[in-house]
Queue: 2 jobs
Job 1
Amino acid sequence: MEALSAADLQLVLDEIAQAMREAPDRGTQACYIPELARVAPDQFGIALCLADGQIVQAGDATTAFSIQSISKVFTLAIALGRLGDQLWARVGREPSGAAFNSIVSLEHDKGIPRNPFVNAGAIAVTDAILQGLQPREVLADLLRFLRMAAEDDDIHINKAVAASELANAHRNLALAEFMAAHGNLRNPSALTLGTYCHQCAVEMSCVQLARAGRFLAGLPGAPRLVSPARIRRINALMLTCGHYDASGDFAYRVGLPGKSGVGGGILAIAPGRASIAVWSPGLNAQGNSKLGSEAMERLARATGWSVFG
Ligand code: GLN
């Protein structure tokens, strides 16, 4: 397929945004986090950052939303930078085939979560980077990383969202305590979970998120935050585990490494070509943005950007 110009891509995004604006079935917001349940479901935004640094966007692409589990990609990058391969003693690299908040495989695997993107795995990663630091230092590091990645200082944590999740965090607390029972938690579960909920409550717009993902796409102008060898591996995990028990379906339909969050955002990486962010608050049965997934599928079809050619 011939390379598409920014003007061609603008037409593609406008068409996708129009179709998504009219979509009758928009999914349901994450109701287990009351602050997220209140977000208006009629919103849709999409943004691309291209190899030459240009941004192409449509819809509500500059509205900030809760990045939730998309934060797990960035904390993984930070944890690998700090602990290197030692991290893999505490978390696996296999798809779970289970819901993002499932506890099922934890018992079978003796407290070692399947991968860094299911909740248990991300809680273990956060626990690992908390080692020797205070929660506020870990969160400041994360914000610094995101602001450098996006080259934008206007990225913050929404404390009301964090408090709303923490007040209802029974399941995640159970995951943390279960890992503690197997010796796979180094800090008190309340401390690790408080940090985790704040990390998930970072807010970014599609434009900011697409810019923050440039380093993962290996785009020429991107800040060099992580080595190319690690970028390859983070992308591999995004492709195989980034959408939980819908990771296979996302790979089949879209063919790009991606990471979703229950705030309705998805970050997808077209290596060497573009970093892509989409947002619509309504989720499908697997907890991934319903219209976001559909938009990614349309975009991949229109551009031919699938990593599988
Ligand atoms: N903070 C959310 C949770 O732990 C993140 C889940 C998600 O985005 N899939 O439940």
Job 2
Amino acid sequence: MARRRRIFEGKAKVLFEGPEPGTLVQYFKDDASAYNNKKIGVITGKGVLNNRISEYLMSQLNEIGVPTHFVRRLNMREQLVREVEIIPIEVVVRNIVAGSLSKRFNMAEGTALPRSIVEYYYKAGDMDDPLVTEEHITAFGWATPQDLDEIMSLALRVNDFLSGLFLGVGIRLVDFKLEFGRLWEGEQMRIVLADEISPDSCRLWDLRTNEKMDKDRFRRDLGNVEEAYQEVARRLGILPEGGPSDFKGPTLMQ
Ligand code: UDP
């Protein structure tokens, strides 16, 4: 097979040219990074699990009418996606205080927020992805006010849906990061969800024990990182327990 053209290589994924115009292949690596590349490492099997978890969550979102770039999973580590023009903003939705919010306001991690908070960060690694306001985003032309209305409404729909989905399998969705892209269809432009949704980009806490089941285990050297990602997949019903023939649906908590 001819070598595919590598379009972009990030910390956890590689994007290759897709089989048809307007498509890309998203390859999930086991590499992990945190604190803006100050900490790097490998989480064995992460790429396979994140490919599956993101496939599952994006497909469920597609089904409820949230447009995404996801087309289909191709193999263990790759998925076919629509090529979009990435909006250079990380959209973070928070339900419970954790991470940078806890540090910025000196609030205890685990404090429930009276309502969900949506934050924007400018994607610029050399500046440590600064927190920005809608004013910066529109003034600097990264997105229009209409784009932002659409992004905010999609982010809140994603939050409602995923919070319920995770709650059903005994997991609290503490916070997560989304990326959006512009998809051009002739003259028409649509904003769609892009990138991935996985334990790399979400904080997921066990409902009963508050145990962390996400990348914080890697960031904070808590151990059992692979096991935590596997447990998320198992609860979502996308990790065959006794081999590929033993596929179950989500494990609902009583
Ligand atoms: N997040 C991410 N990529 C980033 C920054 C944050 O996926 O570059 C996710 C992170 O996993 C968490 C949420 O966004 O679920 C909020 O992260 P926070 O601002 O608390 O930053 P952190 O503590 O991760 O530095």
